[in-house]
Amino acid sequence: MLTIPQQIVKASRGRLSRRIVLWVFVSVIVIETIILIPSFQKRENELLTQLKEISAAQLSLIMQLSPNELSDKQLFERFRLLQDNPELVGGAFFRSDGTPIGVFGEHPEFIPSRPVGNEIIHIKNANDHRYDVVYSPEQLKRDSILILRYDASSVRRELNAFILRIAGLVFIISIFVTAGAWFALNPIVVKPILRLREDLVKAGEAIRHDQKTPGFYSASVHRQDELGEVITAFRQMYSQISEAINERKTAEKALQKSFKQIKAYSKALDNELEKGREMQANFLPMQLLSKSGWEFAAFFKPARQVAGDFYDVFDLPGGAVGIVIADVCDKGVGAALFMALFRSLIRIFSGQTTLEGLACLYNGESISEEEAMAGNRLTLPEHLVALKAIQFTNKYIAQNHGDLAMFATLFLGVLDPQTGVLTYANGGHEPLLIMDKSGGVKKRLNPTGPAVGIDSNARFGIQETRLDAGEILLGYTDGIIEARSDDDTFFLLKQLLSLLQDPVPSAAALLDRISDKVKSHTGDAEQFDDITLLAIRRLSESKT
Question: CB–CB of 318/350 below 8 Å?
Answer without folding.
Answer: no
